[in-house]
């Protein structure tokens, strides 16, 4: 079970996008995450007529290392550390370290 998953709201901790917030689009296997409209880069792309993709300069999100993001806690309006807890019914859920609130609904 991962501490940060697809769809989570996260805050960037370091780099040129420090303090920006967004939803996780993708979690890559090598410990990096792609966050919507954060860490935008310009890619020079050749046209591909088979896929109908035009050429030119395309802006896209680049991955950020997972250690540079923190899960956003809506109760405190800040980034928060995440731990795991076993519920009475046997489920394992993520919880915020600051207030013990369950992340997964």
What does this protein structure show overall?
The protein has 105 residues and is an all-beta fold. It has one domain: Roll (SH3 type barrels), CATH 2.30.30.30. It has no helices and 10 strands. It has strands at 9-12, 21-27, 32-35, 40-45, 56-61, 64-65, 69-73, 78-80, 82-86, 92-96. It has a 6-stranded antiparallel β-sheet, with no helix packed on it. The chain has a two-stranded antiparallel ribbon with strand order 4-5. Strand 9 (82-86) and strand 10 form a beta hairpin. The protein is elongated and about 55 Å long. The model has no long low-confidence stretch (mean pLDDT 94).
Features:
105 residues; mainly beta; SH3 type barrels; six-stranded antiparallel β-sheet; two-stranded antiparallel ribbon
CATH fold category name: SH3 type barrels
Which descriptor suits the 3D outline? Answer: elongated
- Count of the separate structural domains: 1
Sheet of most strands = 6 strands, antiparallel
- The count of strands amounts to 10
Q: Please indicate the percent range of residues in DSSP E strands (runs of 2 or more).
A: 35-45%
Distance between the termini: 15 Å
Kindly name the structural category: mainly beta
**Helix and strand sequence:** EEEEEEEEEE
Give the proportion of residues in helices: under 10%
**Averaged pLDDT:** 94
Computed over alpha carbons, the radius of gyration is 17 Å
